[in-house]
Amino acid sequence: MERQARREQVLRHAKRIFARKGYHRTNIADIIARARIARGTFYLYFENKRDLFEELLEQVLGELRLRIQRLRIGPAEPEPVEQLRNNLKRVLNFLLAERELTDILLHHATGFDPEIDNRIGEFYERVADQIQRSLDLGIQMQLVRDCDSRAAAYCIVGGIKEVVGQASRHRRRDIGILAEEILQFGLRGVARPELLAGLPHKADVAGRSLPRN
């Protein structure tokens, strides 16, 4: 237990330094000074800075998996839209509470370390995988229209990244309003057309030309 607690201590301090200085400007000396451990102690837990950083990414993925719950259908279950709303609230609460991790993910500078760039890319790929699986399930349940679920998943990832970034920057804490705006935007983008009375059919939209300046 003492070993695990010390490891978590190193991760906690590293997370704060990464958020403040960025991955590339942070070095192991910064981390061991902040955690008040010897250099040899650091290497008991992690091979290098990259190994530690990847552990933080895995922590985020694990937390997101816990918060994105599979939709359930049944007379005793909440409405699917309410379940989606609750998923969003759980995700937003986590991301805005873990500002250091959010800052690392949103503001990581690319181009310095191709391997870390790939790890960040893989992180977002795996988040998109989770969302795509939810969309595919929604299509099977006839709650979501037929669509390119991969492209739709990236739209959702991009939208949430921007909303979380703005909320974190401006210290906005009204999770309910944020979740509702994301939910309504997402539903109008992926809900079955017959559920959206008054909206044009996709064939009508496809036949329109963009206005000229």
Structure notes:
- It is a single chain.
- This protein is an all-alpha fold.
- It has a domain at 48-195: Tetracycline Repressor, domain 2 (Orthogonal Bundle), CATH 1.10.357.
- It has 10 helices and no strands.
- The chain has helices at residues 2-21, 28-35, 39-45, 49-67, 80-97, 99-107, 114-140, 149-169, 175-190, 202-206.
- Helix 1 (2-21) crosses helix 6, helix 4 packs parallel to helix 7 and helix 6 (99-107) crosses helix 8 (149-169).
- The longest helix is centred in the middle third of the chain and has 27 residues, at 114-140.
- How are helices and strands ordered from N to C? HHHHHHHHHH
Helix proportion range = over 70%
Q: In one word, what is the shape?
A: elongated
Give the uncertain stretches in residue-range form: 201-213
Rg result? 21 Å
Number of helices: 10
- What proportion strand? under 5%
CATH fold descriptor of the domain at 48-195: Tetracycline Repressor, domain 2
Secondary-structure topology with pairs:
Blueprint: H1 2-21, H2 28-35, H3 39-45, H4 49-67, H5 80-97, H6 99-107, H7 114-140, H8 149-169, H9 175-190, H10 202-206
Summed up, what is this model?
With 213 residues, the protein is mostly helical.
Name some characteristics of this structure:
single chain; 213 residues; mainly alpha; Tetracycline Repressor, domain 2; 10 helices; 70% helix; elongated; disordered C terminus
